[in-house]
């Protein structure tokens, strides 16, 4: 097991009740898990706990069997990569440098990235279709391009587990489809992936299991096609949701009147 979350709970100081309670989740290599739920339900907070960036107020996270809270950041980063919802930098780094920095956890303290890292970086940028942006300033590219750069950066980090917070939020329709195909390919190669999304269709397209967070009900985790019923989705989002099947694909439609 790469990651094991045991009975996690989290409460922000000053908030009357916990954001979530009693979440347990095991991640093995090659598995893809989606976290779904309405705005503000706690998805990003949960991902930060799983990545060891926030300390849960209940329960614990084990990485390779060891409590993540006891591990040095570089040791965590060799196993696990988090792509947050947004990533800003105040420095005028080039796209190439931002991606190369993904390799830092594998380098010694005074090592400079060599030709191997340069090759990995170019390969990752090419995979994401943004090799032509290599020398652009990260601060001067679009939101979707930044999202692709961040995904390239974690490819160079080559972790065993990728944790992605709304990775498709800024991507155009084709890049969303390419991203889903890329994750499917990486998972076949043994990578474990946890991602959040506001598109339940992406859970159907990608996730072996889905964790549904809701303000009204207990967290529910199960096989995506079993857990994401019309009833569960409608209850979770508070609007009537229908599932439309077309071959292998399932599309969700919300029936909200004007
Ligand atoms: N630093 C903080 N201090 C206090 N409350 C916070 C803090 N960060 C987030 N929250 C609150 O915790 C709750 C969960 O936030 P979180 O960002 O985890 O939700 P989310 O499910 O990822 O939301 P979204 O889908 O809108 O991105 C929200 O009510 C939010 O307002």
From TrEMBL:
<keyword id="KW-0547">Nucleotide-binding</keyword>
<dbReference type="Pfam" id="PF00005">
    <property type="entry name" value="ABC_tran"/>
</dbReference>
<dbReference type="InterPro" id="IPR027417">
    <property type="entry name" value="P-loop_NTPase"/>
</dbReference>
<dbReference type="InterPro" id="IPR003593">
    <property type="entry name" value="AAA+_ATPase"/>
</dbReference>
<comment type="similarity">
    <text>Belongs to the ABC transporter superfamily.</text>
</comment>
<keyword id="KW-0813">Transport</keyword>
<keyword id="KW-1278">Translocase</keyword>
<dbReference type="InterPro" id="IPR003439">
    <property type="entry name" value="ABC_transporter-like_ATP-bd"/>
</dbReference>
<comment type="function">
    <text>Part of the ABC transporter complex HmuTUV involved in hemin import. Responsible for energy coupling to the transport system.</text>
</comment>
<keyword id="KW-0067">ATP-binding</keyword>
<dbReference type="GO" id="GO:0005524">
    <property type="term" value="F:ATP binding"/>
</dbReference>
<dbReference type="InterPro" id="IPR017871">
    <property type="entry name" value="ABC_transporter-like_CS"/>
</dbReference>
<feature type="domain" description="ABC transporter">
    <location>
        <begin position="3"/>
        <end position="240"/>
    </location>
</feature>
<protein>
    <submittedName>
        <fullName>ABC transporter ATP-binding protein</fullName>
    </submittedName>
</protein>
């Amino acid at each position: 097991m790469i990651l094991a979350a045991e009975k996690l709970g989290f409460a922000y100081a000053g908030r009357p009740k916990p954001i979530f309670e009693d979440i347990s989740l095991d991640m093995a290599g090659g598995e893809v898990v989606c976290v779904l739920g309405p705005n503000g339900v706690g998805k990003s907070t949960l991902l930060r706990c799983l990545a060891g960036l926030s300390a849960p107020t209940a329960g614990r996270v084990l990485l390779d069997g060891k409590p993540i809270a006891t591990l040095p950041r570089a040791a965590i980063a060799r196993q696990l990569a988090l792509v947050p919802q947004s990533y800003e930098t105040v420095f005028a780094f080039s796209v190439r440098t931002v991606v190369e920095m993904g390799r830092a956890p594998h380098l010694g303290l005074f090592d400079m990235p060599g030709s191997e890292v340069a090759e990995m970086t170019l390969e990752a940028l090419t995979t994401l279709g943004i090799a032509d942006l290599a020398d652009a300033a990260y601060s001067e590219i679009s939101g979707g391009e930044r999202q692709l750069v961040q995904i390239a950066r974690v490819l160079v980090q080559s972790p065993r587990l990728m944790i992605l917070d709304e990775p498709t939020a800024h991507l155009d329709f084709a890049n969303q489809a390419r991203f889903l195909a890329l994750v499917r390919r990486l998972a076949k190669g043994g990578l474990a992936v946890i991602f959040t999304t506001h598109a339940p269709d992406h859970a159907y397209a990608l996730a072996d299991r889905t964790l549904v967070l809701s303000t009204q009900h207990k967290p529910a985790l199960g096989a995506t096609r079993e857990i994401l019923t019309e009833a569960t989705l409608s209850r979770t989002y508070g609007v009537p949701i229908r599932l439309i099947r077309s071959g292998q694909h399932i599309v969700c439609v919300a029936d909200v009147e004007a």
